[in-house]
Amino acid sequence: MLLIGVLILLLAAVLGGLWLNRSTSATETEDADRAAMRVKNLTELQAADTNALTTYGWNDQAKGIVHIPITKAMELVLPAIQAAVNKAPKEAQP
Prior knowledge:
Blueprint: H1 2-22, H2 26-54, E1 57-60, E2 65-67, H3 70-87
Antiparallel strand pairs: 1-2
């Protein structure tokens, strides 16, 4: 009878511990809030990056620094790169 009582108490302690662990702790709530803030910050950062890569605008008007769409920048730079490649001495053929 004593053995059965001890086993019941141990079982109750184990089940109680499992029940306490499944409840949402303050840390889990803080982690969820922090994750939501990170998702929001990432979305804002990606929107700013997309805007900077696809539009014309001022980066620093006082210094005269602008940004242009990346596709236009590549179109402007590509001829200079191709000219530099064409000017480079060709290696001797074996």
